[in-house]
Amino acid sequence: MIEPSPVERLGAQSPVRTLRLLRHLGEAGVGGAALGELVRASGLSKPTCRRMLIALMDEGMVVQDPVTRTYFLGREIYLLGMLAAERYGIHRMALDSVARLAQETGDAAFLQVRHGQEVVCLTREDGSYPLRSHVLKAGDRHLLGAGAGPLAILGAVPEAEAEAYLTAYGPALAKRYPMLSPVLPALVKESRARGYALNRGVLFPGSWGMGMAIREPSGRVIACLSLAAVESRMQPDREPELVALLSREVQLVEQRLAGDAMPQPPIAIASRKRTQP
């Protein structure tokens, strides 16, 4: 008789709670999370949270620093992610586009992907400009519409879908983003008309952003490329230049998604430090 694994022994409700716990741990980023942080984020009791973490450690999904007692995602999660990347390959296809955007603009560039009604940041690349916006990092997730990238995606989906989302998620948006919620319908309309999104510091004063949606060959919106900078670097005189750079890289990624080979722009990419989840 095969003995049940530690995860299986947690009970029928464990899969959903376990996945949510792993998600909270992933959102903690490279610094990991203490038990108390995970208890607060997950809403689980301390004994239950600890029991689930032990089970995940037994499966290699979670590791704990023996000195700080901080928890981190484990090697098995990394391996699963590598396997998933073969199917959801936009990360690999867009990395050099993110790097070029950061190098050419001097600002922070991002690849974000849609996951249901949320948008997850996969990669952040910082440019050379010394003043930076630090409001988004790899692993962060926000509801559709919250930020330049999520706003670009919401503005690119069919209008009926966007309206249904705003109706259904209005309360959640108002709770999480009270400054954004009242103006979001107008921003979605503006983004749809422009073909790109411009966030004028609505979420974080002084931190501006610009985003453009990426579509699969079928036309479905799946991701976006975006830029973030201090307010002075996203004024109207610079906007056309940034839009042109985003548009070029979005087209490159979309052609790769369609399976078309396309030469890269002849730009030397310098050695750089990349931040990934």
Structure description:
This protein is 43% helix and 17% strand. With 277 residues, the protein is α+β, with helices and mostly antiparallel strands. It folds into two domains: 8-82, Arc Repressor Mutant, subunit A, CATH 1.10.10.10; 88-257, GAF domain (Beta-Lactamase, 2-Layer Sandwich). Strands 5-4-3-8-7-6 form a six-stranded antiparallel beta sheet. Strands 1-2 form a two-stranded antiparallel ribbon. A hairpin with a 2-residue loop joins strand 3 and strand 4 (118-125). The longest helix has 19 residues, at 239-257.
Q: What's this, in brief?
A:
The chain is of the alpha+beta class and 277 residues long.
Which terms summarize this structure?
disordered N terminus; Beta-Lactamase; alpha+beta; disordered C terminus; 2 domains; 43% helix; 277 residues; Arc Repressor Mutant, subunit A; single chain
